[in-house]
Design goal:
about 15% strand, 7-stranded parallel β-sheet, 7 strands, alpha/beta
Length: about 260
């Protein structure tokens, strides 16, 4: 097991399911030389159609440790305003200062403009937008350098029609992260957003899979590993000149 401080620390949010993009990012970053902290919220997965994944966090832990990284997992309800600060406290105590923040958490419950409730809209905004702001704020206030090494990468979506609270809150999240690219210039922390397009993490039925494949120039679905490769690059030294960008890694479906 590496000693504390021998590898940089990344915090990846939204890592509750092995099939998810967050899990793929955590594993890829560990393979690239990072110590990994993850957060997840079992209450969210439990009320989704796919249900909770009992091996989600343990599976990621095994992969991170096998790659030589240290690991800590924190169950975190990001609807609570105090959670981001508490999460950083726990991660910093366990692994050390956070260098990169990868935001893969979300609240996502399908509803359209007329069927969305105020409660659902507020929850989406709290988790997807407000928590993002507070997590980035904590990262900035605690970042210790060196200048140019800090990273923020957020996973987004442009699916808003018939998914109004999710799409609207992700749009707000985009603006928060892209603003950080300029507002954190004094720290040398880069901030980017990645749109992975339709990615099969278990939420697409057969009809939707067929339609997406037909619409994608490369003729397949997105895989969590596709997004994870780009996130890993953006967190690397080689990706340090990419800043303030919303990047699509989607097989050309938006072309």
């Amino acid at each position: 097991m590496p000693q504390a401080g021998s590898r940089p620390v990344v915090l990846v949010t939204g890592v509750g399911r092995t099939a998810g993009i967050g899990a793929a990012c955590a594993v890829a970053l560990a393979a690239a030389g990072w110590d990994v902290a993850v957060s997840w919220w079992s209450g969210y997965d439990a009320r989704m159609p796919w249900g909770a994944d009992p091996d989600g966090v343990p599976g990621v832990e095994r992969a991170v440790v096998d790659a030589g990284g240290r690991f800590v997992a924190v169950e975190a309800d990001l609807e609570r305003p105090r959670t981001p600060s508490e999460l950083f406290d726990t991660v910093t105590t366990a692994l050390g200062p956070v260098t990169a923040l990868v935001l893969s958490h979300c609240e996502s419950v399908d509803s359209d403009l007329r069927s969305t409730t105020v409660e659902s809209f507020d929850r989406h905004m709290a988790v997807n937008a407000r928590a993002t702001w507070l997590l980035v704020k904590e990262h900035a206030e605690r970042f210790a350098g060196p200048f140019g090494t800090g990273r923020v990468v957020a996973l987004t979506s442009d699916h808003t029609a018939h998914n109004l609270p999710y799409g609207a809150s992700k749009g707000a999240m985009d603006r928060i992260v892209l603003a950080a690219a300029r507002e954190l210039a004094d720290l040398g922390v880069t901030a980017n957003v990645v749109n992975p397009g339709p990615t099969q993490t278990g939420w697409m039925d057969d009809a939707l899979v067929t339609r997406v494949v037909e619409q994608t120039p490369l003729g397949r679905l997105g895989r969590p590993e596709d997004a994870a490769r780009l996130v890993t690059f953006l967190c690397s030294d080689a990706g340090g000149w990419v800043n303030g960008q919303l990047l699509c890694s989607d097989g050309g479906i938006h072309a």
